[in-house]
Design a protein that fits this description.
With about 50 residues, the chain is mostly beta strands. It has one domain. A three-stranded antiparallel beta sheet has the order 1-2-3, with no helix packed on it. Strand 1 and strand 2 form a beta hairpin. The radius of gyration is 16 Å and the shape is flat. It starts with 9 loop residues before the first strand and ends in a 5-residue tail after the last strand.
Length: about 50
């Protein structure tokens, strides 16, 4: 491997999906976070199953 490797201290994925919580035809927005320190507190490692 001769390329560069980039390391980011955190990542956020935002998505929209149809949801019963939002009503008929509504979309639900969620953020999935992974970071070493969440707002000067402990780490936050959200999980998602696809």
């Amino acid at each position: 491997f001769t390329g560069n490797v980039y390391v980011y201290p955190s990542a956020v994925a935002t998505y929209c999906a149809p949801s019963d919580l939002s009503g008929v035809g509504g979309m639900f927005r969620e953020q999935i976070r992974s970071t070493h320190s969440w707002r000067s507190g402990p780490e936050r490692r959200d999980c998602v199953f696809t």
